[in-house]
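Reply to dn_fold:

You asked what the input looked like. This is it:
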Amino acid sequence: MRDEVGKVIVGQQSTVSGLVIGLLCRGHILLEGVPGVAKTLIVRTLAAALSLDTKRLQFTPDLMPGDVTGSLIYDTHSSNFDFRPGPVFTNLLLADEINRTPPKTQAALLEVMEERQVTVEGKPRPLPEPFLVAATQNPVEYEGTYPLPEAQLDRFLLKLTVDPPSREEELNVLRKHHAGFDPRDLAAAGVRAVATGEDIAAAQRAVAATQVADPVMGYIVDITQATRHSPSLSLGASPRAATALLNASKAWAWLAGRDYVTPDDVKSLTRPCLRHRIQVRPEAELEGIASDDVLNSLLATVPTPR
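and this is what came back:
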């Protein structure tokens, strides 16, 4: 999958790995970056490398909850109300610019992401497996946006920051476009499906079997509890955050070819797992302290098991 995505995407290996971890952990991914750094293209290319159903939903201020989950439609022929599934009934949902839609519509994703089902008129309708929400948002343009509430941010396994490319990477991007690359035609770029739902399910079972020693589990707990006592934070990481860090570390270890988790695996996933689940105090923000700075400081002070 990484090789297929690499046919289109230059660099961004950590972002691609994060999306793969989301698939392996049955989690959801939030991509944050300025416009034009290929957030949407990364997800579209990953979808092309999978033999799975994918849909894209552009979030706008006038989007209604029924536009996301589906709704009951009256059938004049049968005189019955029939359920018309929304775009969430897919394997890979690209939620583009999720912070552009009002909280009422954002809340429609809460049950979808956590329970993996849609309830209409009291009847639950399960979503297909695997199911991944890959949401994008712009961190610099706040006019006309609706910041995601903490309850919904906590539903995302990882928050990945998509940074601008280096000079050499940007040169490679220009060379690709100069050679005729069209980002709207991934098939012409040679991207092909190399994994199926059965492959992902088998990988999920292998990740679940990855071993975690008690000292490493204790290290995860020590990190999350340290966020709750940090003077720079007004909100620390929840027990769900500790579970997310555990599962993501297991997937990272499995991708590295190991059947056990090391403290370094935990350190590698701490920032993407926790940065959106903690809140920096306003006075600390005024001093230029960001969530990643606090997590870096905690990682440097929390004792690492040997």
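The chain has a mean pLDDT of 88.
Hope that clears it up.
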